[in-house]
Amino acid sequence: MKRLLILPLLLLALVAHADRVRVRLFSTNTISTLNISFDLGQYNLYADDSLLLEPLVGEGRSVLVRCQGGRLAVSVNDDNYGLHRSLRLEATDTACILCLNPEGCKQRTYEGNLEVTPHAGNSLLLVADVDFETYLAGVVQSEIYGQQSDIFRIQAIISRTWALRNLRKHRADGYNFCDQVHCQAYLNRCIRPDIMVGVVRSSGQTLVDSAGALIETPFHSNSGGQTANSEDVWRTALPYLRSVQDTFSYRMRQTDWVKTISADRWLGYFAKTHRLDTGDSAIRDTLLHFSQPVRRARLLGIPLTRIRLDFKLRSTFFSVDYDSAARNVVLHGHGYGHGVGLSQEGAIRMVGLGIAYDSVLRHYYTGALLHLDPSANVNYLEHYTAQLEQIIEEDKNKQTQTRSKKDDWLGRLFRLRDREAREEIYIEEEQDNEQDWQYEW
Ligand SMILES: [Zn+2]
């Protein structure tokens, strides 16, 4: 019996690094005033690590935080609660949702806890402390569009892999990730059940190399028909980030683009910035008629990534036509993004064609292996997914009715998850059988 008590503790310790994450919210905005209201559940409000308010804050209350002389001026429903160094809203259960309205920004809603501290003079630093998988669902919703749950499953696997590999990215700043594409976009809580199904189905799945190490999983909007080698964009050659033909990315929203630039500006750029002799007819000819039937990395020795940056091009996969009458160059480009790894629109097309999610991942990450965390309980996840699908079905049938916020599908989902998890622990504790534990491991 002693063994049974120790093992669950060990298991928790092993997965703890990805249990919760700290994510900076509104990281590109300078926020001086923040209004917080509550959509679901109740929160404890702490200031300077002491409980500030009894009873709890929840629906019907609003917390206003202003930065004042390097401190936080806090008021709740217009009652002033003084100046503090830090503020923390702690959710009392997993079904809690808060609404953040920073001055000058569009409202966003999030689950989990929230910390507010003064930042860089007179602004506020907002950090969410959130369950890892809940964060992931918000990332998937922010990063990809689509209709089929497998596309969300694919995005969840590559986003989970990236996040677990980069947990220390903002360590020096005191959080794990920012909410922008610098890390991964996390622009709201996940409000779509079909996305949640995809994320839940992917639970415990990551991409690894043959040595079992998590791989880099870059992705982009559209490859334009061919993905790029990692070394052509970021110098490092990685065996699983190879250029592949990708006709799945044809005829999608971001497949083609055109940009017209005056020939003087185009040639002047190469003359001034890269010191090319544009009076030389061979050089001039190459610059005015450059073509890429297949992806190239350079134009006259200059990295295409540099040219893309300087002209703000959608991709490096372009060819040049010279319109001599108008003295313009017309760039005909393919795709959107750096082109390395997974093409999201290509993946959307592949899923639409009925190609399995793991084949899609293998197409874009050459030789990568799909790994399932041994602590993920597959039977439980299947059961959980089935319950979730049932909630979605019920929700569809209720479309004509007004749904109360308290019956929010996500709230129901959280409660279901909590109950299932508790029942699972109960069943495990009853089984005093060493073999079952080995199986769990
Ligand atoms: Zn970041």
Description:
With 441 residues, the protein is of the alpha+beta class. The protein folds into 4 domains: 107 residues, no CATH class; 144 residues, no CATH class; 79 residues, no CATH class; 48 residues, no CATH class. The chain is 34% helix and 25% strand. It is built from 13 helices and 22 strands. The strands form 6 sheets. Strands 4-3-8-11-12-1-13 form a 7-stranded mixed β-sheet. Strand 5 and strand 6 form a beta hairpin. The two termini are 17 Å apart. Bound molecules: zinc ion. The site of zinc ion (ZN) has 6 residues, from strand 13. The site of zinc ion has 6 residues, from strand 13.
In this structure, how is the largest beta sheet organized? 7 strands, mixed
The percentage of residues in β strands lies in: 15-25%
Low confidence ranges: 1-17, 403-407, 424-441
Helix tally equals 13
Helix content: 25-40%
The rough form would be described as: globular
Mean pLDDT value: 86
Task: Summarize this entry quickly.
Helices cover 34% and strands 25% of the residues. It has 441 residues and is an alpha+beta fold. Strand 6 (71-76) and strand 7 form a beta hairpin.
Characteristic key phrases:
alpha+beta; 6-stranded antiparallel β-sheet; globular; 7-stranded mixed β-sheet; binds zinc ion; disordered N terminus; 4 domains; 441 residues
Topology (elements, then pairings):
Elements: H1 2-15, E1 20-25, E2 33-40, E3 43-47, E4 50-51, E5 62-68, E6 71-76, E7 79-84, E8 87-91, E9 97-102, E10 108-111, E11 113-119, E12 123-131, H2 132-143, H3 149-165, E13 177-178, H4 193-201, E14 205-208, E15 219-220, H5 230-234, E16 256-262, H6 263-274, H7 281-288, E17 298-299, E18 302-303, H8 304-311, E19 318-323, E20 328-334, E21 342-343, H9 344-352, H10 357-364, E22 369-372, H11 378-397, H12 409-430, H13 434-440
The protein binds zinc ion (ZN).
The site of zinc ion (ZN) has 6 residues, from strand 13.
